[in-house]
Amino acid sequence: MDNASEDPTTFTARSLPSDPRLWAPVTSTYLGTRVYHDVLHMSGLYNGAGGDTHRATLPSPLNVQLEAPAEPGEQLTETFTLDTNTGSFLHTLEGASFRASQRIYAHRTLPHVLVFSVSIVRMAAESRPITVQLRAAFSPESPDLDLHLGPDFQGARYVYGRTLTPEQPAGSRQEVHMLWTPAPAALTLGESEEDAAWEFLTAVGNSQAEARAHLQEALRLRAGGTLYATHAQAWAGLWEGCGLDVAGPLRLRQALRGALYYLLSALPQPGAPGHVCHGLSPGGLSNGSRGECYWGHVFWDQDLWMFPNILLFHPEAARAILEYRIRTLAGARKNAHNLGYQGAKFAWESAGSGLEVCPEAIYGVQEVHINGAVVLAFELYYYTTQDVQLFRDAGGWDLVSAVAEFWCSRVEWSPGEEKYHLRGVMPPDEFHPGVNNSVYTNVLVQNSLHFAAALAEDLGLPVPDRWLVVADKIKVPFDPERNFHPEFDGYQLGEEVKQADVVLLGYPVPYPLSPSIRRRNLEVYEAVTSPHGPAMTWSMFAVGWMELKDPGRVQGLLDRSFANITEPFKVWTENADGSGAVNFLTGMGGFLQAALFGFTGFRITRAGITFDPMCPAGVSAVFVSGLSYQGSKVNFSFSEDSVTIEVTARAGPWAPPLEAELRPSLARLPLPPGHKVSFPRSAGQIQKSPL
């Protein structure tokens, strides 16, 4: 692999960024903070009513900084490293006589537990004691919680309380319980010791019993000397099971690794029982306090920008995300009712209930396109997993059909055009509120209704006639003279747009476009898209040009994404100037899709996963491992000359055998587990073998 001597998996610096927002996030699927930050967040824990709802802040016992005074004449070398291999942050102070290290991590198999450890190793042949300082500023207080100190438990301090204000008037104030082992002001390596280590724990739960149970399990592992080992092994297993890399520039490899690492950090360990997802917010669990990173709310970012990557690598986590939407369906129904429509309208900004919590009403009322993104996620999941149970028994059908009913009640018939219109909406381009017939939104309406009808047939349910009538008759704006799709009725060429909008047609929104129209849409909107828009925009332009096999255009667009990646820990910002959300999972999701769906040409369809690979400029090979498709794990790699596919595992006898059908030859190559199948680079499809 190019640049093999340089490791794309560890990010090291001699100092921390001047902006603390860009310090390394430390997150699990349940807890999140940043290194040396004074607060942490718990998944699903919100405080504040309605539009004031935000992630409740807990005081963080991890906010402890290692300091070691140098002896006279001794020079200490200081490094800060984020190791994505082990999911841990390491701060090291090293001199001639000793090395002191602090490791901080969110435990991979105990997602309710955060850990920091300190180790001292003697480096010189001398016996004097070596003392390091631990600087902490912990106070058991929160602006969002009514906290009380409780009795110590097995050496740990205990604080508990409730949120101050529920999201909804009839809601309950949420409970939180935290136990932590306090750190002393100093630690000393004794005269006769060569090395020593100390581990400090924080456990959080919704009840005292839950917090205690997680602390006890962590204490058990600590007593056995395996607390960190179990965490590191879990991360090693996770990376063994999925990956995305290229033979190419180091900064591209680092960007892909960092983005995938932060996204995986927000997900449960595969096979972990009982996981409940409370939604993925744009800035993840390390952010979302009042006034920052959209207050921890859940947007379309989860369903359109993060979900496709999660689905192919971690379908269990993908299902949990869909279950969050199902649990909030009652709130979505109430949103539709409040607006005077039938069915369900998912909140533009959602927290615990699914009721709209966007502080500015216009977005909640007009950005109805979120409904289409939610249903698209369910559609892709259905095609990828064939998990009929989610739809038949677990609420998936109720959601899909409720969105279909919303669309049919929201459109209006235009006798003049003999088309259904969708009026008064805001497209993804938020520079243009209150427009009629957003082409992106209307195509999603069409897609939602077609999927609902097909799903009904699969489940043996009746299909309301109106669904297909509206799908077939909804207006999809198109200018035949200029051969492009106007963003909405009345859009004038040259008007600035905020972000990727029309260019989302084709990918990620399935919609057939001729190459000439696809090219024209890209050219028109690339020229007028704001350079100050959010990070995921240029990735989608890159995907479009990869469809058209134009590597020269691709490189420049991928390069624009790097303006949002900060050093040294590859933390993304929403905007290129550093403003907006940080640890911006939305931008990372878009960038990952540029590789996972752009480089490979992957498209998830009812019939299979199509592929049409292309190496962008400067990349000689692409490696994707651990793809999940209908119960099989698949590795997919390609170079400029060839493609190799290997089914590495099948979940059980129920998983259908797979084959690759090449195009245009229609040659069919069986994909038996454990066998690599290679062929000259071409387009094709991974699909069920008909046997």
Write structural notes for this entry.
With about 700 residues, this protein is of the alpha+beta class. The protein contains 16 helices and 32 strands. It has a nine-stranded antiparallel sheet with strand order 1-9-10-11-12-18-16-15-14, with helices on one face. Strand 26 and strand 27 form a beta hairpin. Helix 4 crosses helix 16.
Number of strands: 32
Strand % is 15-25%
Bin the helical content. Answer: 25-40%
Name the structural class. alpha+beta
* Number of continuous helical runs: 16
Distance between the termini: 38 Å
Low-pLDDT runs: 1-5
The shape is: globular
Based on CA atoms alone, the radius of gyration comes out at: 26 Å
How are the strands of the largest sheet arranged? 1-9-10-11-12-18-16-15-14
Largest sheet: 9 strands, antiparallel
Query: What integer is the average pLDDT?
Result: 96
Can you lay out the helices and strands and say which pair or pack?
Layout (H helix, E strand, L loop, with lengths): L9 E4 L11 E3 L3 E4 L4 E4 L3 E2 L6 E2 L2 E2 L4 E4 L9 E7 L4 E7 L3 E9 L6 E10 L7 E7 L8 E9 L2 E8 L11 E6 L5 E4 L5 E11 L2 H16 L3 H15 L1 E5 L2 H16 L34 H14 L1 H13 L1 H11 L21 H6 L2 H17 L2 H5 L3 H15 L1 E3 L4 E3 L17 H20 L6 H9 L41 H12 L10 H11 L3 H11 L3 E2 L4 E2 L12 H15 L3 E2 L4 E3 L9 E9 L2 E8 L2 E9 L7 E6 L4 E4 L4 E5 L2 E6 L3
Antiparallel strand pairs: 1-9, 2-3, 3-4, 4-7, 5-6, 8-13, 9-10, 10-11, 11-12, 12-18, 13-17, 14-15, 15-16, 16-18, 19-26, 20-21, 22-23, 24-25, 25-32, 26-27, 27-28, 28-31, 29-30, 29-32
Helix pairs in contact: 3-16, 4-5, 4-8, 4-16, 5-8, 8-10, 8-11, 10-11, 11-12, 14-15, 14-16
